[in-house]
Design brief:
single chain; 621 residues; Rossmann fold; 3 domains; 6-stranded antiparallel β-sheet; binds 5-amino-5-deoxy-1-O-phosphono-D-mannitol
């Protein structure tokens, strides 16, 4: 959580910092702040505001925002309520040093008590304030420069951090460090300017040359000097400059009222990107095939896998539940799907011939990252399915497949989900083929159908207006039930999560047949029930479940397969999706559910892209 930005160079830093913060607002948006060293009086100016980055801009408006060195922060509160005093940057006792932080300092209480005894005063409820005071204390004690003070102070710290620190007495220097929270440094060839950010999105329009700091590395960034990176012991580390290509149009909602709607509509195109170069025609037989380099390169280890464990959170966990069905069907390997947060503390039995698949949009989710670190220690192969290129989970994985759906900015995950399911489908097919557990006919038919999915999604998106009208019927419902079976059961969970997180309506997803074991008691004319009846091998059984709800006067919205006259005759409200294979059904049935929750949230006047209490990337436990 929290986004940090820094700039040192030849340009005015303030506009660069604000633009960067807007790009990082998906990481948190309950308060924001910046610190600038002014050209006018060479002094440190710190501005903060409760609320969004736009509130900070309103606060800083007409104040001194000059200067070519600055740091900024957008917060998602962990320690201390969202307020101006708890907003970053935090300032040291003397007022010389200021710092922004993403992460959690676990031993902050002990450190704070020790620093208090040494005369330091604390003003906020945050864990972060202890860092800036500790750096000042270390600097005074060792009589060293800022870089060494940061490095030595961090040796006393337990927890996660990505920090940017400046000292008003050294306006040519910016110091940054990270452990378990991401931090990227953008460099230009002549070292005249440097950009710092929690991810590449605030940097790419200035430079595509990016250094991702590693755990426990401290970067000393000095105007007109090459970037220097040290480990906490003070040994200089090698830096690897990566060329990052990000499509800037993906960072804009391009005429759509919200990122979420844009990202829903992006799906046909980004799923083609996701399959590009991976779903190909065989040059010999012209038969379709899936080629994933990670599968080819790790063939031996994947073939000997006796078990696969998928670890993930939220929407990515729902994708994992679909992945389980796909892999078990095509590869006949048992798959477990674990919440990363439970897995890491459950004393999991991990064998060296297990394959662990972390699934993560951001690639920064703390629980998922910790789960794979645990798995790696036990010698399992970690195969990451990640969107965030160069993210922590991507880097920690032994191998993997990027979903390549472009940056997802809306807090509610949409295109990342369909991208994850697409990669899981390709993985199951590729692995099934080398294992010999899938028949050639089924393999080819599934790939051919997968290639048609983007066009079929386009067809569903044409029903946007109809779905908007349906949403208006359900806008003021207090509860919702989502029911599906087989491949559509995780879609029911995902539909319920989408509604909860952006509409604040209580919703539950259930396997349709489980309804009669409890939730059926909730059914009355006030209870909307979203039924996923499409593409199911046990279609007639789902119809029986539907009948059970109708008999109890439940208010049904059915997601049906095009032309399903039987269900059309049973219900008033339905959305048709094109026919496909059962295993690919989630890629279609989730689309109307994404649109439904979007339109309900908009009708309720809610902030769809930045729902309350949430952040896009959960980098704390
Ligand atoms: O970045 P990740 O995929 O690891 O994030 C996992 C969850 O935090 C995420 O899916 C969350 O549930 C979304 N807000 C769902 O829309």
């Amino acid at each position: 959580m929290c986004g940090i930005v820094g700039y040192i160079g030849t340009k005015r830093s303030y506009p660069i910092l604000m633009k960067g913060l807007h790009r990082l607002e998906y990481r948190g948006y309950d308060s924001a702040g910046c610190a600038l060293i002014s050209d006018e009086d060479n002094n440190l100016h710190v501005y903060k505001a409760k609320g969004k980055v736009s509130d900070l801009e309103a606060t800083a408006n007409e104040k001194d925002t000059t200067g070519t060195l600055g740091i900024a922060h957008t917060r998602w509160a962990t320690h201390g309520i969202p307020s101006e005093v708890n907003a970053h940057p935090h300032i040291s006792e003397s007022g010389n040093i200021t710092l922004v932080h993403n992460g959690i300092i676990e031993n902050y209480v002990t450190l704070r008590e020790q620093l208090k005894k040494r005369g330091f005063t604390f003003h906020s409820e945050t864990d972060t304030e202890v860092l800036v005071q500790l750096i000042e204390y270390t600097q005074n004690k060792l009589g060293c420069g800022l870089g060494n003070a940061v490095r030595n102070a961090l040796r006393l710290v337990v927890g996660a951090y990505a920090i940017a620190v400046i000292d008003k007495r050294h306006p040519d220097q910016l110091v940054a460090a990270r452990k378990s929270s991401p931090l990227a440094v953008g460099v230009v060839e002549d070292n005249s300017e440097f950009f710092l950010a929690s991810d590449a999105s605030p940097i790419v329009e200035y430079t595509n040359q990016i250094v991702y700091l590693k755990d426990e590395e401290v970067a000393i960034i000095q105007r007109n000097h090459p970037l220097k990176v040290y480990n906490l012991k003070g040994t200089e580390a090698d830096t690897e400059v990566k060329e990052v290509d990000l499509d800037l149009s993906m960072l804009d909602h391009e005429g759509y009222p919200h990122f979420m709607l844009k990202e829903i509509f992006d799906q046909p195109n980004v799923l083609k990107d996701c399959m590009r170069g991976r779903v190909v025609e065989s040059p010999y037989s012209h038969a379709p095939q899936v080629i994933l380099s990670a599968v080819t390169n790790n063939r031996r280890q994947l073939l000997r896998a006796r078990r696969i464990v998928i670890v993930s959170c939220g929407t990515s966990w729902h994708a994992g539940l679909i992945g389980k069905q796909l892999i078990e069907h095509f590869c006949r390997i048992p798959v477990e799907v674990a919440y990363a947060s439970e897995f890491r503390y459950s004393e999991p039995v991990i064998e060296h011939d297990d394959v662990i698949i972390p699934i993560s949009q951001s690639g920064e989710t703390a629980d998922t990252l910790a789960a794979i670190q645990l798995a790696k220690q036990q010698g399992a192969l970690v195969y990451g399915i990640v969107n965030g290129v160069g993210s922590s989970i991507a880097r920690e994985s032994d191998t993997g497949t990027y979903i390549h759906v472009g940056p997802e900015i809306g807090v509610a995950s949409t295109k990342a989900f369909t991208g994850q399911v697409t990669v899981l489908t390709m993985l199951a097919l590729a692995l099934g083929m080398i294992k010999g557990t899938v028949e050639q006919d089924e393999y080819e038919a599934t790939i051919r159908e997968l290639q048609l999915i983007p066009t079929k999604i386009e067809k569903i998106l044409l029903q946007n207006d109809k779905i908007k009208n349906l949403a208006s019927i359900f806008t003021y419902a207090k509860n919702f039930l989502y029911l599906g079976r087989g491949y559509n059961y995780p879609v029911a969970l995902e539909g319920a999560l989408k509604l909860k997180e952006i509409s604040y309506i209580h919703a539950e997803g259930y396997p349709a047949a489980e309804m009669k074991h409890g939730p059926i008691a909730l059914i009355d004319e006030e209870m909307p029930v979203v039924f996923l009846t499409n593409h199911h091998r046990r279609y007639q059984k789902v119809i029986s479940n539907l009948q059970e709800v109708i008999s109890r006067h439940g208010r049904i919205l059915a997601i049906i397969e095009e032309g399903d006259e039987q269900v059309k005759n049973m219900v008033t409200d339905f959305i048709e999706v094109p026919s496909t294979l059962s295993c690919l059904a989630p890629l279609l049935s989730v689309i109307p559910l994404q649109l439904l929750s979007y339109h309900i949230a908009v009708a309720r006047g809610l902030n769809v892209d930045q729902p309350r209490n949430l952040a896009k990337s959960v980098t704390v436990e």
